[in-house]
Write a structure and sequence with these properties.
Elements: H1 2-6, H2 8-20, H3 22-42, H4 50-68, H5 75-95, H6 100-105, H7 117-146, H8 153-184
Length: 186
């Protein structure tokens, strides 16, 4: 799943921030995001992926802010802003008519299907499911950061379930569409 590679800077931040600190985690995520952009360029990709470019801008911006303006940010407060950035990237991609999953899906689908209405609609729906999962993740991070007494396990479980649901939906929904299309075309 190439989408998970696109999410690598976010995953790295969430894993590293608690052990090396929020600011260092942001810089590490920025470096990974930049490495993804360089990798794409070295592979000859002409189109920059929305998720990867958005991650680079988000993490560099937040790293600069955390380094120079807000060194007192807690890990969970920074997570809220990272999550909000991820929501903005995913929802923004849908609103401009280029759902972020479309670029990953095109790597696995023949070019003649790229403009098919069902392919485009499926990617809008898949991107929307990811956006919803990221909204849940943002809410969970906000609860942990700013609501005292919330058991940390509760938002963590909700977050994992939302992300797992997005992963499963991303894998299963295209299969269901292909199966339904095969039945209709018989």
């Amino acid at each position: 799943m190439n989408i998970l590679l696109g999410l690598a800077p976010f995953i790295a931040f969430f894993v590293l921030a608690r052990s090396i600190g929020a600011t260092a985690g942001l810089w590490a995520a920025a470096a990974i995001a930049a490495a993804l952009l360089v990798r794409a360029r070295l592979r000859g990709q002409t189109e920059v992926k929305v998720l990867e470019a958005g991650a680079a801008v988000l993490f560099v911006g937040l790293a600069v802010i955390a380094s120079f303006l807000r060194p007192d940010w807690s890990v969970f407060a920074v997570r809220v802003f990272v999550d909000l950035g991820l929501v903005a990237i995913t929802l923004g991609s849908i609103l401009i008519g280029r759902p972020f999953t479309l670029q990953y899906a095109r790597e696995q689908v023949p070019q003649e299907r790229w403009t098919h209405p069902l392919f485009l609609a499926a990617n809008r729906r898949i991107s929307a499911v990811w956006a919803f999962a990221f909204v849940v993740e943002t809410a969970c991070s906000a609860l942990i950061a700013w609501v005292p007494g919330v058991p940390a396990a509760l938002p963590l479980v909700a977050n994992v379930l939302a992300l797992l649901g997005a992963v499963i939906f991303t894998a299963e929904y295209p299969r269901r569409l292909r199966a339904r299309s095969a039945i209709v075309n018989q």
